[in-house]
TrEMBL record, chain A:
This is NitT/TauT family transport system ATP-binding protein. Keywords: ATP-binding, Nucleotide-binding, Transport. GO terms for molecular function: ATP binding; ATP hydrolysis activity. The keyword ATP-binding applies. Residues 34-260 form the ABC transporter domain. It holds the Pfam family ABC_tran. Residues 1-25 are annotated as: Disordered. InterPro entries: AAA+_ATPase (IPR003593), ABC_transporter-like_ATP-bd (IPR003439), ABC_transporter-like_CS (IPR017871), ABC_transporter_ATP-bind (IPR050166), P-loop_NTPase (IPR027417). Belongs to the ABC transporter superfamily.
TrEMBL record, chain B:
Residues 77-257 form the ABC transmembrane type-1 domain. One of its GO terms (biological process) is cellular response to sulfur starvation. Its main location: membrane. This is NitT/TauT family transport system permease protein. Belongs to the binding-protein-dependent transport system permease family. One of its GO terms (cellular component) is plasma membrane. Keywords: Cell membrane, Membrane, Transmembrane, Transmembrane helix, Transport. It is a multi-pass membrane protein. The chain crosses the membrane at residues 21-39, 84-106, 118-135, 141-162, 183-200, 206-227, 239-261. It is found in: Cell membrane.
Length: 286, 271
């Protein structure tokens, strides 16, 4: 176990700041602010989320880490505008989120592609829905190329593997050029190898585009691999217990070096304390 | 060695398997014709039933051939197809939207459940006297009877399809900026196309059955009228030929509906 001061100290020595890496371009992502957000479900005993206050910078990759039932998914739904908080507000680029918009797009656990459409038709939907059908011919091949699925454009969505389907879902989310991409445990149904590849690819794509990326996860290794910053959530009621910066360079995020392991152990220690898990019994993901 | 010996037989199997369907269909048709012929012989040999000998295949098919040549078949079929088409269109125009509504809203489904099940179990033909009183024209009454018969399969099948829609499909669409129009025409209707068409296929079967007795009403055209007319004029080969026409067209309509279902079915075996 580390104490907090020690951990903060270590985080400063784990590699160059993300802003220094050459891949980073001028962010196209939006600024996200959560102000005094709280929520309770009608039949629940207490509030699910309480006194949430945080900001996410444009182009930042933030992981919301917590056990099931801590309200992290509820929080993400509120960021996406698919549900409305009982208290407080979500502000994206200065505007309060009133509902879903192709400017902040959510990706779900299941790819949920429309099985009666081809891959290209699925990817085109966001543009079609927002009156930008004219861009389909150029934009769809562009995003399919981004996720390495150009060869599959005319295939039926059902013919693809789980990982490929999730890549299509990613392309579908990216096609309308969102400023914020919200991921609700989108890799949890995939096998370990596919999951690692996608984790890296999604981070690289988001950083390449300068997108603001918010992902929900209960997997510490996933948080370390993908996020610039991790918000560790405590349950009952859901609150932010820790705000940890992951300062690892891109190669270190592959999880093969000591720096990754240190960051992982540090975050696992915090997570265990917040989530009240026995560290020894916690899944060793690396 | 056995593998080598087996190989040519295996190679021959696919073409045999392909022939199996048509072959069995031919056997079925042959059996039906054989039974019909036997029945015709029995009738012809019986002195009490001798007058009905024209029901046998040979006079019937000869009469059918001449009716096809003279255009009589087309003449008596077109009014019937028009009535079925109008009744089915009316049934779909009511059944699909109402089915979508009760599939989407649990409350509405609970409220309408008993009234709809009650109405569904009433034989459409029992509305006949009411239809005759309510409509100015015989055609109107017949179209109404067909619509009353056809609306239920379409309505219930649409509602069942809607309840099977993956809620995530609606969430994803909403997330990507779909308005209610998109939601209906890009997500909901394609998702339940097969359910709607299955309902239409069932409805078509019922409508075609209801058509003939409905055409016993005052009209002077259509297949039901032709049957009645042939009976009254003791024209039994014409009567039997009309029965054949009814069966063939009914079969064709059902095949068309099932081809449409295959075309719109998006479920793949690979999954």
């Amino acid at each position: 176990m580390f104490d907090e001061a020690e951990m903060r100290d270590m985080s400063q020595t784990t590699g160059p700041a993300p802003a220094d890496t050459p891949r980073r371009r001028v962010p196209a992502g939006a600024h996200v602010a959560v102000r005094g957000l709280g929520h309770s479900y009608r039949r629940a005993d207490g509030p699910v989320l309480e006194a949430m206050d945080f900001e996410i910078q444009p182009g930042e990759v933030v992981a919301l880490l917590g056990r099931s039932g801590c309200g992290k998914s509820t929080l993400l739904h509120m960021l996406s505008g698919l549900s409305q908080p009982a208290l407080g507000e979500v502000v994206i680029n200065g505007n309060t989120v009133q509902g879903p918009s192709p400017r902040w797009v959510m990706m779900f656990q299941a790819p949920s592609l429309y099985p009666w459409m081809t891959v290209a038709q699925n990817v085109a939907l966001g543009l079609r829905f927002t009156g930008r059908s004219g861009q389909i011919a150029t934009r769809v091949p562009e995003v399919l190329d981004l996720v390495d699925l150009s060869a599959f454009a005319d295939r039926n969505a059902q013919e693809l593997s789980g990982g490929q389907q999730q890549r299509v879902a990613l392309a579908r989310s990216l096609a309308p050029r969102p400023e914020v991409l919200l991921l609700d445990e989108p890799f949890s149904a995939l096998d370990a190898f596919t999951r690692r590849n996608l984790q890296q690819d999604v981070r690289q794509i988001a950083r390449g585009l300068g997108l603001t990326l918010v992902l929900v996860t209960h997997d510490v290794a996933e948080a370390v691999r993908m996020a610039d910053r991790v918000l560790v959530l405590r349950a009952n009621p859901g609150r932010i217990a820790e705000d940890v910066t992951i300062e690892l360079d891109e190669p270190a995020r592959q999880g093969t070096c000591e720096a990754f392991q240190r960051a992982h152990d540090r975050l696992m220690g915090l997570y265990s304390r917040v989530a009240d898990i026995d560290t020894a019994a916690a899944p060793q993901t690396i | 060695m056995t593998a080598v010996a087996d190989a040519p037989i295996r190679a021959g199997m696919p073409s045999l398997a392909r022939l199996r369907g048509p072959l069995n269909a031919a056997i079925g048709i042959g059996l039906l014709l054989g039974l019909w012929w036997l029945g015709g012989r029995a009738v012809a040999d019986n002195p009490d039933l001798f007058a009905f000998a024209n029901f046998a295949p040979e006079p019937t098919l000869r009469r059918l051939w001449s009716m096809l040549g003279s255009g009589e078949v087309v003449e008596m079929t077109l009014p019937s197809l028009y009535r079925v088409g109008a009744g089915m269109a009316l049934a779909a125009a009511i059944g699909v939207p109402v089915g979508i509504l009760i599939g989407r809203m649990a409350r509405l489904r609970e409220i309408t459940n008993i009234p709809f099940q009650f109405l569904r179990m009433i034989s459409p033909l029992s509305w006949m006297p009411i239809a005759v009183m309510a409509f100015d024209t015989w055609d109107g009454a017949i179209v109404f009877l067909i619509a009353v018969a056809a609306v239920w399969p379409i309505l219930f099948s649409t509602a069942a399809g809607l309840r099977r829609i993956d809620p995530a499909w609606l969430k994803v669409a909403r997330n990507l900026g779909a308005n209610p129009f998109h939601m209906l025409f890009v997500v909901i209707l394609p998702a339940i196309a097969v359910d709607i068409l299955t309902g239409i296929r069932l409805a078509l079967g019922v409508a075609w059955v209801v058509l003939v007795p409905a055409e016993y009403l005052g009209v002077t055209s259509g297949l039901g009228y032709a049957i009645n007319d042939a009976r009254d004029t003791l024209d039994y080969d014409r009567l039997a030929a009309t029965v054949v026409v009814i069966g063939v067209i009914g079969f064709a309509l059902d095949s068309a509906a099932s081809a449409a279902i295959r075309k719109f079915n998006w479920v793949r075996d690979t999954h």
